[in-house]
Amino acid sequence: MIPHIFKELCRKKISGVMATVLSSDGQGPARPGNRLFWADGKLVFGTVGGGSNELQVLEACATLTTQKRVLEISSFLPGTLPSCGGKLEIQLEKVDFGNPEEAAFHQKEPKQTRHGKLFLLGAGHVAREVA
């Protein structure tokens, strides 16, 4: 998580929903471990791939009534390449950044590798061809 966003969430004692990609069929841009945080009726940071899949996740975040839930979502956009849709398994989890223990868990940064990375941005079908 981005440190300045983390500090702001803790300072304001924000509660919301963390959505984490558990699995993907590889047809869209989302990959396991991608996360987003939803609070106050909007996306605060992150992504689970964008498009209609992400819209479904944001709608599920807005209506989450349990502490934790796993859901499967899918979309296929007719007339486009398969890289624009796909199936995802997403875990939704309520997070209270006013609770120091919960906040500390979500502050952990993912480990970085020593290998250089090239990020290709844009439509999935374009990035796939460039890669």
Describe this structure in words.
The structure is a single chain. By secondary structure, the chain is an alpha+beta fold. Helix content is 28%, strand content 30%. The protein has 4 helices and 5 strands. The protein has helices spanning 3-12, 51-62, 100-107, 124-130; strands at 15-24, 35-39, 42-46, 68-75, 86-96. Strands 3-2-1-5-4 form a 5-stranded antiparallel beta sheet. A hairpin with a 2-residue loop joins strand 2 and strand 3.
Kindly summarize this structure in a few lines.
This protein is of the alpha+beta class. The chain has four helices and five strands.
Largest sheet: 5 strands, antiparallel
- Given the C-alpha coordinates, what overall shape results? globular
- Rounded mean pLDDT is 78
Percent of residues in beta strands: 25-35%
Strands ordered across the widest β-sheet? 3-2-1-5-4
Helix-strand pattern: HEEEHEEHH
- The value of Rg in angstroms is 16 Å
Q: Into how many domains do the coordinates divide?
A: 1
Question: Termini distance?
Answer: 26 Å
Helix content: 25-40%
Counting DSSP E segments of at least 2 residues, the number of strands comes to 5
Which residue ranges are poorly predicted, with pLDDT under 50 across at least 5 consecutive positions?
A: none
Q: Which structural class best describes the helix and strand composition? A: alpha+beta
**What's the number of helices?**
4
What order do the helices and strands come in, and which of them pair?
Layout: H1 3-12, E1 15-24, E2 35-39, E3 42-46, H2 51-62, E4 68-75, E5 86-96, H3 100-107, H4 124-130
Antiparallel strand pairs: 1-2, 1-5, 2-3, 4-5
